[in-house]
# Entry
Amino acid sequence: GVTISDKTHPIFSGLTFTGTNSDQLQLFSSVNSYAVTGINNSNWIANPAVTVLGNAIGTTTTNSVVEVPIGTSMNGTVTTKRFIMIGLSEYSTANLTSTATEIVKNSVYYLLGLESVLLPVHFTGINVVASSTNSAKLSWKVGIERNINKYKIQKSINGLDFSTIADVKATRNNEYSWVDNQPFSGKNFYRIIAEEITGNTFYGPIAEFTMNNIGSLTLLSNPVVDKKIRIQFNQMKEGQTVISVYNCLLQEVATTHFSYNGGEEIKTLNIPPFSATGIYFIKITLPNGQIISKTVSVK
# Structure
């Protein structure tokens, strides 16, 4: 396999990356020794320098996917055509994966200048920054956008397992943004997928973002012995907040609405004195619509 350094390059369009950093492509289903070949970067004699797009997995010096521009002098020979070099061993080509053949096909389209056929969309960047307390703002740009219906925003806690959290309609503006009001505490991984009108999808790059200021909700007494449920808010989302308490029959026994200022605050809910002992369920609805559930034992 190969580790790709520029996943946004057109020849990798529509491919699914694997590996810990989602930057690897498997070119063979089974291999002999040295199936993926390349040129050691110290041996290149080229001016101007070639563009290295990928290396054999496990090395940063074996250049296995390389774009060579027109006019490059390579050991005395000047190239008259732009070309893509892909290091595939002759001993294993019978075991090429569909990923490998897609790279070859994409390269042909790219070199023939048929990007409009190959790429309905070309991502030029994705960025994630803290928007406000407990929010993350995604922004991305596309250089090409043809027949794209919408963009799917996906999120992952580990960079491997992604799920779709929102859709953004394509507007032909080439610049888009969306705010995640419920980022994970710590690391977040975001990925944008462009979906054509036909349903075909094209994957954009992955962006990593760390949210350090996620607040907390703490039950100060559990079990409850005086029919008073106390919840401590700490650096949660500001605004109108609702706390509701339900018994084991899912009947609401207490509720309160209040405006939370975003700092540290303790809210107390009194449940009816005649309430039965047992397990009660607490539903906390934050200003951004996020719902947090907790259970408490009432004695």
